[in-house]
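Write out this protein's structure.
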Amino acid sequence: MTSQGMAREVLLEEFATYYQADELSLFTATGLPDWVDNSASRIVQFHADVGSQVANLLREMASDATHPLFQTIENQTMFGWNGDPESWGVFQQIAQQMADAIAVALEEHGDV
């Protein structure tokens, strides 16, 4: 599998595991920044080799509501991240913060 493909799989696994529709109100109301920082830490801890590609993919998706990966993420999380302006805004916030946190964690990890 290419590093691009692996980055895609890492991102899908993170969303499928930690960003399910039935938990959205919990993490958006109580600690979105902590939740996202924990995601970045997990990604770097277990997948540092593709961390920068995951961050790039997140930034790419945050700037393109029609990105094809949204359909897969929606199927896995049961939530339309780009389905309305509010959901899209939440995704953009998650993606941008997670990408930034991955970059910082990679730097601290010594993988940049």
